[in-house]
Amino acid sequence: MRVPPDLRDHVTRPDDRVGRDWPVWPLALTAGWQCVTTPAGACATPADCPAAGWLAAQVPGTVASARRAAGRLDTAHPPRFAYDDHWYRLTLSGHGHRRLRLHGLASITEVWLDATLVLRSDSMFEAHDIDIELDGTATLALCFRSLTPALDARRTRARWRPRLVSPPTLRNVRTTLLGHMPGWCPPLQAAGPWRPVELLGGTPHAFDTVDLASRLEGSDGIVSLTLSFIDEQVPALPAQLMCGGVDAALTWRDTRTLTGSLRIPDVERWWPHTHGAARLHDVFLRLGDAHAPIELGHVGFRTIEVDRGADGEGFGLIVNGVPVFCRGACWTSADLVTLTGSPAQLDHAFALARDAGMNMLRVGGTTVYESDAFYALADRFGILIWQDFAFANFDYPADDSFTRQTTREASQFLARTRRHASLAVLCGGSEVEQQAAMFGLPPALRAQPLFTERLPALVAALRPDVPYVVNSPSGGTWPFSTRRGVTHYYGVGAYLRPLDDARRAQVRFAAECLAFANVPDDATLNGVTGTIHQHDPRWKAAVPRDPGAGWDFDDVRDHYLHTLYGVEPARLRYEDPQRYLDLSRAVLAEVMTDVFSEWRRHGASCRGALVWQFQDLRAGAGWGLVDATGRPKSVWHALARTLQPVQLLITDEGLDGLDLHLINETDTLIDAQLDIVSLRDGVQKVACASVAVTLSARSTQCLRASDCLGQFFDFTYAYRFGPRSHDVTIATLRNVSDGCVLSEAFHLPDRGVQSRCEVPMEVVLEPVGQGWQLVVEARRFARAVHVVDPHFRAAHDVFHLAPNRPQTIPLIRLDANDKTSRPQGELRAINALAPVFYG
């Protein structure tokens, strides 16, 4: 039996093996597993394990996912999985040499074959190969040991101790911080074979590794392949690499390795979906005279460069020679229980990101390296990935053992994801430099060779096409300076700054920003756990907080509810809890719209912003734009109206009135008409104008509303010459060719919500194919219209509705398996006296 010291040249498996013959591809060991939990140290070998108490377990998976499947997991109060021992077992059968590949074991693990210990692993982020000989049947056992001995054994001195993580000695153990961050996420800790376990071999042409990479040389695409087989001596069949209509012969580098490349002239490039098509090219291998080629996966071709700006202190991405405003959110997990999520969950999440106009997701250092399926979906959906290495907040050890461990981890990840065009930024980690700076350390004392030397060297060697950022945030004496490099911006948000701070801060690139306790819809609050009210302990348990702070993110939301809407949140919660929820959803939608309008405007210094966070990890008012069930919140809908490739935005310029910003990120010129109207009492026109505009490809421009109108009008009510003449200005951008609305923006000179009136609305429920839609029309301006339905959600929600213009709202079933429920609900506008019912 041979146990390699590490997984040499580990590279990715193909994304999709449906219908392929397992003797060529690895056999995934997914079924037939059992698991049992024992006290820490109670069982030294598999023979000591109890006979009873074993649960069926799916692999890849975790102890938590096995318990959930058995109906034995309370996600609100889970056991401390990281501090018990957990045993998994599976019977293997066969004859001859095999290679066992373990892609990820959380976190301190022993691997046994029958009574023989064949591997010890102390990192959940490393993959391992074990060569074995089978002669009939054998029992594979995995023991996931308690973290306690490892935390006690390595007590190296740190220069600072962040409050984020408990215990702080986790700096010494290579495991995810998910489950160990009080106030940030549920205490659901990782334990188990969270990545696939595979068996390789059994045929002369069984693949070992498939290293597929692509690059651009001028306008040509280069595809490179290095493919190795399990057997040391395989029949040296002729082989061809095929991609994009081009074939090239491969050569045998040695007795088990094929290598070669091909060139595709004038190849079609991969773009983030906001700027073009996410074009992918399938790659095939033909071995010998086989009738059908073997699909190896896909590749994309793009270039990515960093633009530091004229002063050399900015940060922005240039993709295929075109500057890209990167926008999106910070990813947490599609499913905290499995740490991976199902294919359906991942596909749903990427669809939501695309539909919201996002073109970037950041996988942060507090989480995990995501699955192969995750990066393949990013390729397909045209979503750029900002990838932190899995380091955050800590002053990490610098000893040789930790160095070797983290080098293997990073090398394996870079090799595994080498084929993915969506990987756009590689970052040393999250808030490491920030923590050191906030503890008062000068730059010379807070630097770590891990981030300044080792990781950038690995990136240069293995992914030279991807820019490297030393840390997030970084740049300047204060690494979190908003005017330099990459920042984490919480001025509007946790620091309770006014909305105009978004301009004053001169943000260059916000890798995190705009954290709020975002309220989900009623269907989620009235979910399977029973209705969650604002005074319910479950509500507060789901509201994020920083450890040791005397406030939480409910308080942050309430601050803006008070300062922007002029209401007393505590009193409103007491007197009218439903209106409190409606206004809470609406105010954060307005905040998101205003801040991103500022950052995307023509001439802004900002080149990107990622909201903290994309999805909640439990039901309630979490940071997520999407709730724990996968339903978008009001803030997602606001971003979906603000982040599109063709966009009209309004900014309030005070005494200079309103600026109208026109953005066209596509490669096509657009002839359009821009209409502006200001209304009194939500219906009476007091000012209006229409102008023809041309949106050049890949362009931004700014028009002054006053120039469009051609005369003085106090759009912003800054001059205050008498009573305010209007309560809303609506700007609409229409395509000249078909009259369709391309984008629409609203400005309210007074955000107060004390005054409500009759807002006549007509709602017609219409069947469409197998679904339903609402056709809504208001007789006067309706503000922040929210669709409430126990069985459906609105495709567009918490939206302003211009008067006398019908709008169609598709309805989406909350439960895709429910084919019988009919829509029945209400529309609530925050400026209306009463809701309007339908169904």
How would you describe this protein?
The chain contains 16 helices and 42 strands. With 839 residues, it is of the alpha+beta class. Among the domains are: 27-200, Galactose-binding domain-like (Jelly Rolls); 517-603 and 613-641, no CATH class; 646-747, Sandwich (Immunoglobulin-like); 761-838, Immunoglobulin-like. Strands 1, 2, 3, 4, 5, 6, 7 and 8 form an 8-stranded antiparallel β-sheet that branches. Strands 24-23-22-21-20-27-26-25 form an 8-stranded parallel β-sheet. A hairpin with a 2-residue loop joins strand 18 and strand 19. The radius of gyration is 28 Å and the shape is globular. GO terms for molecular function: beta-mannosidase activity. This is Beta-mannosidase. It holds the Pfam family Glyco_hydro_2_N2.
In the CATH hierarchy, what is the superfamily of the domain at 27-200?
Galactose-binding domain-like
How much of the sequence lies in strands comes to: 25-35%
Radius of gyration: 28 Å
Q: What structural class do the secondary elements suggest?
A: alpha+beta
Number of helices: 16
State the name of the first-level CATH class of the domain at 27-200: Mainly Beta
Multimeric organization: single chain
Q: Which sheet architecture does the biggest sheet show?
A: 8 strands, antiparallel
InterPro entries: Beta-gal/glucu_dom_sf, Beta-mannosidase-like_N2, Beta-mannosidase_GH2, Galactose-bd-like_sf, GH
Protein name: Beta-mannosidase
Keywords: Glycosidase, Hydrolase
Pfam family, one: Glyco_hydro_2_N2
